[in-house]
Amino acid sequence: MMWIFTSNGFLSIVSHRQKPEHLLVRARNVTHLKTLFPNAEHFTIKNADYPYRAVVHKDVVADFILKYIQNLDYDNFKNSVTEPDYLQSCNRVWRLMFEYGLNHRA
User: Alpha-carbon distance 75 to 7, whole Å?
Assistant: First the structure.
């Protein structure tokens, strides 16, 4: 898993190089990171692809994902996104993956 799209934000989650029990949770919009992981210690690497970051224990990330799924109550993801710029980006990703899937239809 690398990318997570939630109603409230987009994250990239990867393994932490020096802390095997932790993950590096990254975002391009600081509000997404602070909304989804408000209790984490956030930091910024200005020129990075994902400038907003937090080092989060794997159990905390797993608990976040589990709770998100358990509380999921929408039947259309795009309709659950309220931030206009984020919704536009989600629609672009949806379109690219829709086109990708056309070649794999039976």
Answer: 12
Give the residue among 12, 5, 2 at the shortest CA–CA distance from 81. 5
Q: What is the pTM of this model?
A: 0.91
- Give the domain range for residue 68: 3-74
**100 occurs within a structural domain:** no
pLDDT (0 to 100) of residue 5: 97
Q: Is residue 103 part of a domain?
A: no
Largest interatomic CA distance in the chain: 47
H runs (alpha helix) in the chain = 30-36, 58-70, 77-80, 84-102
Report the percent of the chain where pLDDT is more than 70.
99
Angstrom distance (rounded) from CA 49 to CA 91: 21
| Residue 69 amino acid letter | I
The sign of the dihedral angle between the CA atoms of 27, 3, 58, 62 is positive
Bridge partner list, 5: 10
